[in-house]
Amino acid sequence: MDNGLYKVRFETPRGAGTGVVVLHDGHIWGGDSSMFYNGSYEVGAESFHAKIVTNVHTIAPHKPPIFGRDIVHITLTGTYLHDYVQVTGVAREVPDIPFKASLTRLGD
Predict the structure, then answer these.
(1) Which three-class secondary structure string do you get for 39-98?
(2) Whole-angstrom Cα distance, residue 64 to residue 17?
(3) CA–CA gap between residue 59 and residue 56 (Å, rounded)
(4) Are strands 35-43 and 4-12 parallel, antiparallel or unpaired?
C-alpha cells in the first residue's frame, strides 16, 4: 500500500460524510469540514487495520457528528487492493453504532 493522500467516504446510521486523509509509514492524519482525525495503521498482504481519534476543529450546527460525539476512538479493520481501502469499525465510546468507510488514493 502506497503512502499518499486519500479521499475518504464514511457513514454510520446517524449520517455520512467525506474528507481527506494522508497515510504515511503507519501514520494517518486527516479531516473534513468540521472534524480532524489522527492515528496509526498497519497493512498485511491485503488487510488494513487502523486506530484513529476524532476531534472537532470547527463547530458546525448544520452537520452534527456522525457518532453523536466530538471525540471518539475508532478501531477499523478491512481490506485494500492497490489504491482502494474498504473498512468497517466501531467507536469505543458508542459501540452500538456501526461505521464503514472507503478510501481512494488521490496522489502523493
Answers:
(1) EEEEECCCEEEEEEEEEECCCCCCCCCCCCCCCCEEEEEEEEECCEEEEEEEECCEEEEE
(2) 11
(3) 7
(4) unpaired
- Among candidate residues 40, 66, 44, 68, the one with its CA nearest the CA of residue 53: 40
Q: Which has the closest alpha carbon to 37: 8, 68, 60, 61?
A: 8
Q: What is the pLDDT of residues 24-54, one digit of tens each?
A: 999 999 999 999 999 999 999 989 999 999 9
Architecture of the domain whose range is 4-107: Beta Barrel (2.40)
pTM value? 0.92
| Residues 3-26: tens digit of each pLDDT | 999 999 999 999 999 999 999 999
% pLDDT > 90, the chain = 83
